[in-house]
Amino acid sequence: MSQLPTTHPDVLSKFMVGKFSVQLGSINPFGRIPVDQAIEETVNKDTQTAGGTKGFSLKSGTVSKYYITQEYRSRYLRQLREMTGGSSSRLTYPDLQTERKKKYERDVEALTDLMENTWLNPMCPDEEDLVSLSTDIVSPPEVNRDLLRAHTVGEAAYQEFKVRLDEDQQEKLHSKLKKRGLKTFTNLSVKQGNSVNELRYQLFCAKRGAESSQLPPSRDCLFLHAQRANFQAAIWRRCLEPKPNMPSPIEHGWAEEDGKLNILWMRSVPAPEVVLELLSCKCSRVCKLSDCKCLVNGLACNDMYKLRTCTN
After folding, report:
1. Residue 297's domain spans which residues?
2. Rounded to an integer, what distance in angstroms lies between the CA atom of residue 197 and that of residue 220?
3. Does some domain include residue 56?
4. Do 77 and 14 share a domain, yes or no?
5. Cα gap 228→249, rounded to integer Å
6. 3-state secondary structure of 110
7. Hey, how many other C-beta atoms are within 10 angstroms of the C-beta on 143?
8. How far is the C-alpha of 211 from the C-alpha of 35, rounded, in Å?
9. Phi-psi region for residue 301, left (φ > 0), alpha (ψ -120 to 50) or beta?
10. Is 156 within a domain?
11. How many folded domains does the chain comprise?
C-alpha cells in the first residue's frame, strides 16, 4: 500500500475519492465492504458445498482442482441464477422494522429530555463554564488552564522520553513517565455538609438543580424510616419467641388514622415555606398521584399552578 503512488497511481486516485468499497445489493443499505473482501465473499458463496472443502474431498489433488476452477464455477453459477431468477434476495433487518425504529426514537427522545431538563446539557451552546457532568461542579480557572494544555504537556513529555530512549541505553521502552501534576475534575471535591438537610440544600442550589424525586430524604424522613427499619428488625429478632413482647408501632414510624395503621412519612415540612410557595407542577388536565409532583410530595396546589381546576 505504501508503494501505490509509484506502482499503481490510478488505484491510489480511486482510493482517495472513496472508491475502496462496493455495495453487495440494492436492498441492503449497510452492505458496503472492501473490494477484495467482496470478491472473496462472492466467490465463496457461489462455490460453497455442503460440509465445506473438507467435506467435499480429502484428496489434495481434488481440492487443488476445486480451488483452481473456483472462480469459473462461481461466474457460471451466478449467471445461471440470474437467468432463472433465483438470485433475488429477501434480506430483512430487525433494526429497520417500523416498531424497532419507533422504539429507538422514543429512547433517543427520553435521553435527550433527561439531558436537557434534568442533567447538565453538554450540547448547550450558551454554556460558557466547564462543568462536570457527574458532580455538576464548575471548574476553576487553574483546572481549565491545565485541561486545555494537557495535550501539549503530554506531547512534550513523550518527545522528552523519546530523546532519552535514544540516548540512554539503560532506558527501557516500558519505563513509566513522570506525572506532570495537572489538575482535573478529580482534584475537586463536593463540599460536604454536616447533615442530610444541608446536602439537600446543596443539590437544590446546584447549577442545574435537581428534581424532588432525586433529592435525598430530609432528616425527619430519614429518622422515621430508620425507626421503621429498627422496629421491623426487632420483630425478626424475636421470631423464635412464642409470645414476644413488642412495643406499639405508633411510636416507631407509624401513625394511627381512623383506626388504621399508616406510615408516617414526615412530621415537618419538606422545605421552607418560601420555597414551597414557589413550587408548581406541570399538570395540564388533572392532578394524579402518579404524575403530580405536589401529590407525590404531599403538598397542596396553589394559585401558581398551571391547572386552575385542581381539587388538591
Report:
1. 275-312
2. 9
3. yes
4. yes
5. 8
6. helix
7. 20
8. 54
9. beta
10. yes
11. 3
